[in-house]
Structures are given as structure tokens and as C-alpha cells.
Amino acid sequence: MTEAQPPSTVRTLVSTLWFPAFFICGFMLCYLLPMHAPKPHDMPVVVVGDHAAHQLAATFQARMPGGFDITPVPDEAAAREAITQRDAVAGYDPGSGELLYAKANGSALMMILQQIFTPVAAATGHPLVLTDLAPSAPGDVMGTGLLYCLLAMNIPPYITVMMLLRAELRTRQKLAALVGVGAFASIVCYTAALSMGVIYNQPSLLLVGFLLTQAVGWTSFGLVPFVKQFLPGVAMGLFVLLSMPSSGGAIPKELVPPFFQALHGVLPLGQAVDSMRGILYFDGVGAARGILGLCCWFAFGIALVVGHQWWVRRKAGADPEAVTAAGTYEHEDDDGVVLDPVFEAPKPRRHRTLSGAVRDSAGTPVPGAVLTITDQSGLQLARLVASPAGEYEVHDLPEGFVTVVVSASGRRPAVDRVKIRPGRVEGQDFELPSELAAATRK
What we know:
disordered N terminus; single chain
């Protein structure tokens, strides 16, 4: 028994600390790596005049390979339209040295553009003239306020799922709670952002915010039976670590590596940023695409939940034990159908575990029953107290037979001999009749 403790300690530490380690490495890879030195990657820019556009494209390609995607336009009006239609983030007129941009896309983008095009304009004998076609809201000076509002609608739904996993509620009540939290978050964030001048009064933003909460919440909830104890890594990886740098909210997507740019239109946070910016600053251009993406995530989450519920009910009807074989679950509904998986670390394959319940003759749990486990030589291996539900569980027992003695005040004790095998969870229930009932039977 003593020799088995060190491996158990290591396994326990690994199963407990994998998530902090994952989070540390994730922050370095998903935050520091793409954001420590923002630079253009395939940044769409229009330039007035074919010759000037080709010349500038060749110059930028030599200095910053893959940094810009230069497209020629016939005049300044076409350049303005490309920006307001969100086909380009900037437009440059070499004849006047004017740089057209939209600060609503992010202040960092404006600063990078100004830094790059100032020497370009100077080379043609013009001072750089900046023209902002879509200024950000007065309370969003840095252009990042919208992101922080969205984070308050992006992260809490996942936290809500984690809190609901062990709640004494039925599935439909938990899902109703997700909807309620989403509505609450949308209203609170919209009201706060509006009062601070971070957004303009556009009620349709409430819909976008609510869809974001449901996309994250329902997908996280639906993934629980499939990823089980790895839900924190999967959900936080998707909706925080990968979503933040790819959202374009803090650092414009044109300034992060191509991998994160590709995720921008796929993950819910980037879709919400695009939708809200389209509604606020570009007369709705691009908003429909983001809203559709959020609806797809929401539908995906619903499909996961409904599909798993259907599968569980089907399996429970054919073979109730098949549900338990699929995983550990927390609650049952009135029909005895398992609904929600318990969130817990997996038991290592080499664990030697004994678990069960202590009940009286009527099947009522006996809380506080004391279980003493000894090996074949009589050495005590474990001593524990049953839970209020009469349940017990003990790990790291030696292979072979052990003796279990169960006792409780006012009840006749029970003794049994159980064989412990590696990689198995042995189930053993005990019945402790009251002393009075035992005497009556005699």
C-alpha cells in the first residue's frame, strides 16, 4: 500500500493541475505570440490609380512580404466606398497624400497605417492627410470598449454552465437558466455601454449580444457529455484563448497572424464584434454574416443537447445500464433518465476502487455509516464515513481480497469480503437493518 502512494500522488497532481498548466501555455501561445508585435498580414488596402497601386504593392511586398493586399480603384469616391462597404480597411490617394481609414476598426490599425504611409506620402512631396470615415463612439476612444462589453457576454455563459453542472435542477431548468443569464447579460451590458458612450443607441445590438451568450452557453452545455472533465480546456480554449486574439476587438484582425485571422469569422466572439461594428458604424454592412454565424453556433449547441438527450433516452429504454457505461452522470428525471454528467477528473486506469451505498432494510440511505477496510492479514487499509446519501468510495486498494466491516449506531453491522482488481471500480452495497428489526425477525 505504501509503495502505491507516490504514483497516486503524481496522478492526482496531474489530473488536478493540467488545467492551470494548459491555461499558462495557452496564454503564451494565443496572447503573447500573436499580440506582442502587431504587423500587417494580408491587409486589404485600395490605392487610387493602377500605376500607383502596382508600384506601391511592389514596394510593400519587398519590405513586408505578405503584409498588404493592394487593389487599385479609379478615384477617391471608389476608395471611400470600399472602406464603408468593408472591402478594405484603408484607402490611399497618392495625388493628394490622403489616407482614408475607419477608426471604428481599431485605433491600433490607424496608428500602424499612419506609421507606414507617412514616409510614402513624403516620398511624393505630400504631408499625410488623415480622413476618418467611421469614427468610434465618443466613449470608446481606443476602440476597445466594445470588446470589453462583449467579454461580459462571452465568458459568463461558460461559467454559468460550470456552476449549473452540480445544481439540483433538471436539464430544462438549467437551459432556462442559460437563457435567463443571457438576457440579463445582454440588457446590463447594453445599458452600461450606452450610459458610458461606448455604443450608440441601437437596440438590435441586444439581439447580437443575446445570440453570443446562447452560442457560447448552449455549445458549452452540449459539449459536457462528450468532453466530460476536459470541458474547461475545450470551452476556454475555444471561447477565450482562441477567440480573444482572433476577435479583432483588442488588436485588429489584420494585424495578427493568418491562423488567427482565419478564426475571426468562425468563432462567436469575432462574429459578434463584426456584427456590432457593422450595425454601429457601417450602416449594417457585414452584420448579417456575423449574426448568421452566431445562429449557427446556437443551433449547434441545441443539436448537441437534443441529440444527446435523445440518445440517452433511447439507450435507457433498451438497457438502463448502458447509460452508466457511457459515463458518470449526476441527476435523473422523473422517468429515471440520466440527464447531466458530473464534472470530475477521470479515474486513472490502474486505480483499484471500491464504491457503493449503505442502506437499511427499506432501501433508505444510512448516512454516517462507518466503513473499515482491512487486508487479508487484518491490517487496516482505510476507514471512512458514508456520505449523507449513504454512499462511499475509496481508491488505491491493494489487489486481491479485502474485508469490509460496516457499522452504524442502532444498527446491526455487516461484513463482506470483496475482490479488488486493477483498472476496475468494484461495486458493493451493504444493508444495515435496525437492531429492533433484526431482533423481530429472530
